[in-house]
Design goal:
By secondary structure, this protein is mainly beta.
């Protein structure tokens, strides 16, 4: 169908950004080619330990785009200014795309001078606004540090990154932003300058005093500088085994989280530095060399852990009874203390001052141990600023009962390890009790006293089991304060039917799945259903059978992993396609579904010209069609040679269309990267 013939797809194939099919001329006047140096933003000094000039602190943030909008200028800090609605495609037709591509070249220097040789020498990362996958360009290891890259036109964030061979005289390690929100919309030269690396030095002390030597030798821990704004090199300096805990770290200017990391093998009660990693300074901006001393406010806390007011029983066969985590609620971690397998359950730990929560957990051999298979806050938000003692008493009770289905006993599980489990959930986590494979579906579980939402769940090989492959809440806010009985009955229905496309039966190779999930999912409430039940459609006739808890469901189709686009007898390789957004299943019965499928064809050009063949024979890229901007797009290859045409079978409806090229694309016909053509999706 041609566009002149008035196709319902009278959509303008007019788009943005991507590679070049011919050598492109370079305009040396583009983007102020001789301008040197990165844009460095000043940050206010927050006065942590009175740092020297050049070492300051910031609490900057990152903008996240809401659905239907994306960042278009490469500066997420100023919001998401561009709407990106998907396109509606109701019938088969033609849709062409022309991609705008630019060529960028330049040289990279270090503080205005030649960048030292190195293997590796570093990588430039070009991140197109509105995308999450950068284009990486490795700098040559010797000679002038020049680069040449084809990019989709648009606004970019450019960074320099290097992670190995961090010695003096080599190119600096770390990650540094060189440009933000720079428009690259024409061919040109862009020279980039890396700010010279700086040295941050100082001493780590404990309670204002030099850190004592570590008994038995070995390092007392380390100080670590981790890039706070993007992934990059973490620079770590050891604090030594004895003497003053001084350090000197060589860094690229940037923003860092500064952590103190305890020894890898550590005694929580005795080691001079607490036995865990603690972020002592967040988003610390480093612009020039300077001094940063860090004092660790440390106290010692100890106590006894009892069970229902009595000494905790021994663990089974010498297994540990559990662990006690002392978590600093300021978000800087905490040590974990083993409660041991026998005798009194006591603890002692050196911790950082502040507000703490004491959390008990037990997961190893817990079915036979004295503690429930749960995590429990024994004490929450208690401020500890001095050495002292805190005893903890854990209150435990047992809940038991029988599960039935539609008022009748639960059928035996045919070969499955179990028929499912009963779940007890509160604000601190989840406890479970497994239903045996045969016999009465009885359960029994020790629980910490409190209030629980109770659910029934089938979690192992449930497709052929007696319970649905879902989780249903059967009771809310049940008080557990002593031994209690709770019987559970759940309403279950069996549904079967057939899936067709455009009213026609599907042929062999369906390679799709039918997925049932709650139509209006809620977090809590009696009758609430969570999860998904997935049914593989048969290879002939696309029939299905599924077991569900009675209720209202959203039915969706998704491709199987072996789905191949272009098979006319099968469904398109798209997923999360609603076949019924609110299907009510209150009784056992039959439900058929029919899907609308269309075919879209077209061509892709670059700067109005045909895409040239890939020199290496690799794929030149692919178009992706996602229902709206949802998951599971249909990926259609543009091939390695010849006209860059495509044919895509998709479900009728709104589509988010993108271009992606990430296979051996450095010297390819289309630039590396991902690009949104319609809608917000770029993959």
């Amino acid at each position: 169908m041609s566009r002149r013939a008035g196709s319902a797809l009278a959509l303008i194939g007019l788009l943005i950004a991507c590679g070049s099919n011919q050598p492109l001329e370079v305009d040396p006047n583009s983007w102020d080619a001789d301008e040197a140096g990165p844009v460095l933003r000043p940050f206010e000094d927050a006065g942590f330990n009175a740092p020297d000039a050049g070492l300051t602190r910031t609490d900057g943030g990152t903008a996240f785009c809401p659905p239907g909008f994306r960042d278009n200028d490469g500066d997420p800090a100023n919001g998401c200014e561009t709407p990106c609605a998907p396109v509606a495609i109701a019938t088969s037709g033609n849709l062409d795309f022309d991609l705008k591509v630019v060529n960028v070249t330049g040289r990279v220097t270090l503080a205005g001078f030649r960048l030292p040789d190195g293997t590796p020498r570093g990588t430039l990362r070009f991140l197109l606004a509105g995308t999450t996958i950068p284009v990486d360009v490795d700098l040559p290891t010797t000679g002038e540090a020049t680069y040449n890259v084809n990019l989709f036109a648009g606004a970019y964030r450019i960074t320099y990154e290097r992670a190995t061979d961090c010695r003096v005289g080599a190119p600096p390690c770390g990650i540094q932003e060189l440009r933000r929100a720079i428009p690259l919309n024409a061919n040109g030269v862009l020279n980039l300058d890396i700010a010279g690396d700086v040295v941050v030095s100082g001493e780590v002390t404990v309670n204002g005093q030099a850190i004592s030597a570590r008994t038995g030798g070995g390092n007392r821990g380390s100080i670590a500088f981790s890039p706070a704004e993007a992934t990059g090199t973490r620079v770590t300096e050891l604090l030594g085994a004895s003497g003053r805990a001084t350090y000197s770290a060589r860094l690229l200017p940037g923003v860092y989280d500064v952590s103190i990391v305890g020894p890898s093998t550590c005694d929580p009660a005795q080691d001079p530095v607490p036995c865990h990693a603690s972020v002592r300074l967040r988003r610390f901006a480093v612009a020039t060399s300077g001094n940063l001393n860090i004092d660790l406010p440390v106290v010692t806390v100890a106590g006894r852990v009892t069970l229902n007011g009595a000494t905790m029983p021994n663990g089974p066969s010498g297994w540990p009874r559990g662990n006690l985590l002392i978590a600093n609620t300021d978000g800087i971690g905490g040590p974990t203390v083993d409660l041991g397998p026998r005798d009194e359950a006591t603890y002692r730990a050196r911790i950082y001052k502040g507000v703490q929560s004491f959390v008990v957990s037990k997961f190893t051999q817990c079915d036979a141990g004295p503690l429930p298979c749960q995590t429990r806050e024994a004490v929450r938000d208690i401020r500890i600023d001095t050495d002292g003692r805190l005893d903890l008493d854990l209150r435990v009770a047992r809940v038991s009962g029988v599960v039935t289905v539609n008022g009748a006993p639960v059928a035996n599980a045919a070969g499955n390890p179990s028929r499912g489990r009963v779940e007890f959930r509160d604000a601190t986590g989840l406890a479970t009790a497994t239903l045996a494979r045969t016999g009465p579906a009885a359960y029994s579980a020790p629980l910490y006293e409190g209030r629980y939402d109770v659910a029934i769940s089938s979690f192992e090989s449930c497709a052929e089991g007696p319970l649905p492959c879902l989780t249903r809440t059967v009771a809310a806010s049940v008080a557990v304060a002593g031994p209690a009985a709770l019987n559970i009955d759940v309403p279950v229905v069996d549904v079967r039917g057939r899936v067709t496309a455009n009213g026609n039966a599907l042929g062999d190779g369906v390679a799709s799945r039918l997925v049932f999930s709650p139509a209006a999912p809620r977090a809590t409430g009696v009758g609430t259903v969570q999860g998904e039940s997935t049914v593989e459609l048969s290879s002939r006739g696309a029939t299905y059978r599924v077991r569900l808890y009675a209720g209202t469901y959203r039915a969706q189709v998704r491709p199987a992993p072996n789905c191949v686009d272009g098979e006319d007898g099968a469904l398109p390789c798209q997923g999360n396609i609603n076949v019924d957004a609110a299907a009510q299943f209150t009784t056992t019965g039959v439900r058929d579904f029919d899907l609308r499928v269309v075919t879209v064809t077209g061509s892709v050009t670059i700067n109005g010209r045909a895409v040239f063949d890939d020199r290496t024979g690799h794929e030149r890229g692919a178009l992706s069609f996602a229902a709206g901007d949802g998951a599971y797009p249909n990926r259609v290859s543009l091939g390695s040679n010849g006209p860059a045409t495509y044919r895509a079978r998709i479900f009728a409806g709104t589509q988010g269309i993108g271009l992606l090229n990430d296979v051996a694309c450095e010297n390819g016909a289309i630039p590396c990267g991902h690009l949104a053509l319609r809608g917000c999706r770029t993959w």
